[in-house]
Design brief:
Layout: H1 2-60, E1 62-65, E2 68-74, E3 81-95, E4 98-99, E5 105-106, E6 109-125, E7 129-136, E8 144-152, E9 158-165, H2 171-174, E10 196-204, E11 208-217, E12 223-225, E13 233-247, E14 250-262, E15 269-271, E16 274-275, E17 286-287, E18 291-307, E19 310-323, E20 329-341, E21 348-350, E22 355-357, E23 372-386, E24 391-408, E25 411-429, E26 435-451
Antiparallel strand pairs: 1-2, 2-3, 3-6, 3-26, 4-5, 6-7, 7-8, 8-9, 9-10, 10-11, 11-13, 12-15, 13-14, 14-18, 15-18, 16-17, 18-19, 19-20, 20-23, 21-22, 23-24, 24-25, 25-26
């Protein structure tokens, strides 16, 4: 009887059960949707975070500095960089007429030209390698490779440079032409080796450094050969500098350089030393001629003293040449110069390289200032006479005064006046048929330089 009473109630129970089941399903469906929605929102937030990080990394990959208009490109992991560099020097020169060492007269002239037009890239990769590639497009010769090398810097205190490079010898020659106090280097630069293919090791200590290198070159200012098949020579160089005093505005720099040139006992090869006045467009007015040689040794000493905005520097360089037949020949050159920055800025010294860089103006033109101004004076002498060894190349003395204006960190204007004198052991015949033992000339020159 009781069972019969239950059956009539079963439709109601079934309805209630169905309703509860539907409600539960609806609730479960709603919760699932919410979870899925939350997951979607979380994924969206993660994507936004990733995009924000990428955007931040993109900003960090390109950097600008105040002294260079060129951006530095940096890899995402920061282990590699690339930066463009350039050096543009436009010169104006007005010079009196001069005789060259052969007695040929070169009339007075006015010249406006591009002295240097260089472009390149530099940077590092894999955190321990630096690289440099630079070309010169000065328009006077074919496009010339100036630097093409890599440097390993994985050691704490030393580095190793491989490839086509400049070899350290002397203070002015080792430094960059973008950081000269005058338009041209002094006559001691004649003894510095040109760039060559080779290897150079540098050790850096506390305000001192040592360079030692070896190179193979086929062309050099002081190297000459009659036959291009005999055009190779080996060069060994070393340079040591230190700053024993660097405190309270005082800085003392001392250094020494050595260079050995091996001509491989080739009778076709010769060394030659020649120099212009402190300007580029004129002819060379002293010249040893070709000295048949087995080898040559160059040696130099350097000194610089800086007190705040005053800088004095001087160098002496000599060459001893082992002639194949005549006695050993000796020639030399030296200079002394002083620079005073009127506006108070000072030259920047690098103990790691043993060189100076030009001042950075405290009030550049771009900020409404007048830039940095300085005056400079130089005495420069080269003696290419060694009568006992049969060398009568002449002796040259230059007196130079200069005015420099640094408009910006990378923009500089220069004005130089050069008075040059030359004396000779053997006379030359001038255009009037008179024998002369000396000559002199006045040279005015100016430069506008943009470099970064």
């Amino acid at each position: 009887m009781n069972n019969n009473k239950m059956f009539p109630d079963s439709p109601i129970a079934l309805a209630i059960s169905a309703s509860l089941l539907c409600f539960s399903s609806a609730v479960m469906a709603s919760e699932t949707d919410k979870v899925m929605e939350l997951e979607e929102r979380l994924n969206a937030l993660e994507m936004e975070l990733i995009e924000a990080k990428d955007a931040a990394n993109q900003v960090d990959r390109v950097k600008f500095s105040k002294d260079s208009p060129s951006p530095e490109l940096i890899s995402k992991d920061g282990r590699s960089t690339m930066e463009f560099k350039a050096r543009i020097q436009a010169d104006y020169v007005k010079a009196d007429g001069l005789y060259d060492i052969d007695g040929e007269y070169n009339d007075k002239f006015t010249d406006a030209s591009i002295r240097r037009l260089r472009f390149g890239i530099e940077g590092y990769f894999s955190n321990v390698w630096e690289y440099e590639l630079e070309f010169d497009f000065d328009g006077l010769t074919e496009v010339e490779v100036k630097d093409a090398n890599v440097v390993y810097k994985g050691w704490d205190d030393s580095s190793l440079k491989l490839g086509f490079q400049k070899f350290a010898f002397g203070m002015e020659a080792t430094g960059s032409s973008a950081h000269l106090a005058f338009l041209e280097r002094a006559a001691t630069d004649v003894f510095a080796p040109d760039r060559a293919l080779g290897v150079q090791w540098r050790y850096v200590g506390n305000n001192y450094n040592l360079h030692v290198g070896y190179g193979i070159t086929t062309e050099n200012e002081f190297f000459s050969t009659e036959d291009q098949s005999h055009s190779e020579m080996n060069v060994f160089n070393a340079r040591f500098t230190m700053a024993p005093i660097d405190r309270n505005g005082h800085l003392l720099h001392i250094g020494a350089s050595g260079l050995y040139i091996d001509l491989n006992d080739d009778a076709e090869k010769a060394l030659r030393y020649r120099a212009r006045p402190n300007t580029k467009p004129t002819e060379r007015i002293i010249n040893t001629g070709k000295i048949k040689s087995q080898s040559g040794t160059h040696y130099g000493a350097e000194l610089a003293y800086q007190y705040r905005n005053f800088l004095f520097q001087s160098e002496y360089v000599g060459a001893s040449v082992d002639q194949t037949t005549d006695p050993k020949a000796n020639v030399d050159a030296y200079y002394a110069q002083a620079v005073y920055t009127i506006t108070g800025e000072q030259w920047r010294y690098s103990g790691k390289k043993g060189t100076f860089k030009t001042p950075s103006p405290s009030n550049p033109i771009s900020t409404g200032g007048w830039g940095a101004w300085e005056v400079a004076a130089r005495y420069d002498l080269a003696n290419f006479d060694d009568v006992d060894a049969g060398i009568e190349g002449g002796k040259k003395t230059d007196y130079v005064i200069g005015l420099n204006w640094y408009l910006e960190d990378n923009l500089k204007a220069q004005l130089n006046y050069v008075y040059t004198q030359a004396d000779y052991v053997a006379p030359y015949t001038d255009i009037n048929g008179v024998e002369q033992y000396d000559q002199d000339a006045n040279i005015f020159q100016a430069r506008l330089q943009f470099a970064f």
